[in-house]
Fold these 3 entries.
Entry 1:
Amino acid sequence: MNAPRASRTIGVGVGVLVLRDGKVLLGKRKGSYGAGTWSAPGGRLEYGESIEQCAARELREETSLELGPIQPGPYTNDVFSEVSEQYITVFVVAHQSRGEPVNVEAHKCEGWQWFAWNELPSPLFPPVQSLVASGFVPQ
């Protein structure tokens, strides 16, 4: 008889690369896995949601920005062994979001800042780090 395996979760996340004036919007995570790392707005895809709906919802919930037209971006596959989770993160690129970012979820984020892609802060949240390591450069 085989011993029971530890519970492991595979999830789908959506990351929104909000671009404005040649810079990308990143927030410093706090209060959850990855605290202290910089990440794009985004979160877990909910059942029945499209990638676009998830991107719009997460962006609004986290920053109060309204999502404009998006372009599909790459995806990453990251294993978070510390919490026995694996995430496929689907990125979208947004050039025309409306409004100014507000730190709506202050219990989850220290604040939002704009960065040039070639001058990203450190440390990056693993999906964003994987994206950078892949050589992806948002256009």
Entry 2:
Amino acid sequence: MKTTVFVFHPDLTNGSRVNASLAKAASEAGFEVRDVYHMYPDFKIDVAAEQAVLEESDRIVLQFPIYWYQTPALLKQWFDAVLEYGWAYGSTGNALQGKEVILAVSFGAQREDYQLEGRFHTTVEEVLKPIATIQYHTGLLFLEPFVRMGALNLSDEDLSQQVQKYLEVLSMK
């Protein structure tokens, strides 16, 4: 099974401890890791190249932080450009049928903040729902997301444990 990790972090090298650690571990474990912001700093996505990578992948991992309760801007643009009508969905759009997707998402705040009665009055599931809904147009199979809460305050030990869990998720058959 070919697993490809698409990392959407605006400053993976200098601005991310959690996503950088996860991406580095995945790469060192032999998974293809694509730093999409590094590849497309001008937001001019090579649609054909991205579609080719998706076609070659059995499992697609979308790794990103949540910003203002949404995906980073380039991920939204990537969805809009790459998941084209006639390719990803529509009467002839079946290129992604049956491919697995794992959302690998980091939240800065704690899980208790993401409860209906919590600080933000919304849940993790509600925040991720618009992304998961893509499966109903594309035939993608969304697996259980890999969600990291409290990314702003993870200890080195907790981060190390999360990296190991991530590698387990990426390696599952």
Entry 3:
Amino acid sequence: MDNFHPSDLKTILHSKRANLYYLEHCRVLVNGGRVEYVTDQGKQSLYWNIPIANTTTVLLGTGTSITQAAVRELAKSGVMLGFCGGGGTPLFAGTDQVLEVAWIAPQSEYRPTEYLQQWVRFWFDDDLRLSAAKAFQQARLAHLRQHWAGSRVLKEQGFTADMAALDAILAPATSAMVAAVDHVGLLTEEARLTKHLYRLACRATSYGDFTRAKRGDGTDSANQFLDHGNYLAYGLGATATWVLGIPHGLAVLHGKTRRGGLVFDVADLIKDALILPQAFTSAMRGHSEQEFRQSCIEALTRTEALDFMIDTLKATALTFGRLAQGATTAPGEVAPQ
């Protein structure tokens, strides 16, 4: 069979790609033109294909190695690559030091710069950057309520959220976020809301007492699943910003000087809606890490989470980029909610 390359395959938009991989104890290489991961079983080596044209992110965990040829093919297909510890956390940089979030992004000089140009027009204005952060939070809360109220899968798994209690939390949180005078106030309100959401999730699943541990320090299943699931969200966030050509350092909420801050911002759009309830549900159902991970990936795909991230980034860039130029929203275009 003749070798083929990613460029020979039909291009699939990142927002429509179905696969997100976490691999451990394997080798990733190119075999016959295909990117595959190899696991050892006794004296045999088992080869498994990675459909790179339909993949957004690959996380390489404990005991993995990857060849230069495999990295080249992943880059050609625009697959985001990250190195991490066991179970998906913590995430390591592809450099000589450990960072909180760092990704090896595919290098391409031919991505459009439209959204980057609009983003930097408003980003250096403190007031507009704060307004953009508030718009992100509004989109986040709307997505949260929609999923907690309407997810049939969560209900089938036993997650029965008290919607009246959720609305009683979201209403004042939304008002407080809109009224925040600076980024510190907005982050404070975000932290307060998240604590309330943890309590609601505990009640919805009868989980009992819960305290959110620092990343990687939690010993209970819910904390471990939250860490694991959040890195799946970070992978999609990194992919969304890369697709639009917006550097990860141009955050709107998590700090102007924090490398990778925009990945946190974008991941937050879906973490509370999708990852948080699944973490508590999987903990109560006794899921393994693999079962939890698969549930998260199915939820991310089913709800078109990457589409939502990309659309929110686009709307934010265009809306606030025009405001920075003194223009108003174009007819028929709605600012991010």
